[in-house]
Amino acid sequence: MTLSKEKLLELYKKMITIRLFEEHAVELFANGEIPGFVHLYIGEEATAVGVTAILGDNDYIASTHRGHGHLIARGGDVKLMYAELLGRKTGYCKGKGGSMHIADMTLGFLGANGIVGAGPPLAAGAAFANKYRKDNGVAVCFFGDGASNRGTLHEALNLASIWKLPAVFICENNMYGISMNQEYHQNIKDVADRASAYGIPGISVDGNDLFAVFEAAEEAVKRARQGDGPTLIECKTYRWRGHFEGDPTVYRSEQEVETWKKKDPIPRVKKRLLDLGVLTEQEDQAVWDEIRKEIQAGIDFAKSSPLPDESELLEDVYCD
Ligand SMILES: Cc1ncc(C[n+]2csc(CCOP(=O)(O)OP(=O)(O)O)c2C)c(N)n1
Ligand SMILES: [Mg+2]
Questions:
Q1: Ligand 2 being an ion, which residues bring their Cβ within 5 A of it?
Q2: pTM exceeding 0.85
Q3: CA 148, CA 163: separation in Å to the nearest integer?
């Protein structure tokens, strides 16, 4: 394990930030303050944080419709994120994109994406750019189990493989594509098995175990930077909320949800920190309190920001 104690604490804080950001998004949505759809990442925090922990400045991320966790893990600004969710002028896309269009090029964050499976070709392109520029960067692509059936993923895996692109493909297998359980939508248990069709390594890990995710990502990123090509990592995880806020979630049992809640990734990291002596129970409370304040400040910022003016509607649609 190459993670220092300080880094471990930083990762723990990021996981808590994602959890609290999303829990507050639940409330904001229920209060009718978020126009459009939101897909929440609660329960999957270890995957985004474990993967991004190994990334550096020249690296890219292609995200999904469930992208808040990816951006927070990458260092996104929760103020700008809330402002975007609430459709405010101060948001990441000036309030005109919403949850599924948040991008931050200063962080190499190529964007959330409302098109399932749109990320893999973007990541392959970004990885090609890294290779062409010889800047030692890698491109990471998050995608779901549902997206793993799209041709876009398979084309991207093939190209990345034959051109040995510095890319890492992260399948967030949360067992469902909307209401459809994985066993109905594909005839395999491990999405990682698909890697063999492209002659690249494929590995399945417990996506709720920060350390397992980190170790797999560390290895894959090392391989990519060395010029050995892409890796497919499948992180087995679960979303606690419905597919989107408002989903009546009739396709799974309460018992299933409860079973997965017992595998909450956050207390697992806390336990490691306590065991290592990096954190005490008291300090843990302080960490949660500090992040709650940060989240509240983000919401206050968003709520006090103006909506975009009608006259700005057609601005920023195209760029020169
Ligand atoms: C090309 C395309 N097809 C269908 C949809 C509708 N859709 C939105 S999310 C989703 C399921 C995605 O499942 P998965 O990839 O497993 O991601 P998860 O929501 O589980 O994170 C579908 C089919 C879409 N947005 N884009
Ligand atoms: Mg899924």
A1: 144-146, 174, 176
A2: yes
A3: 21
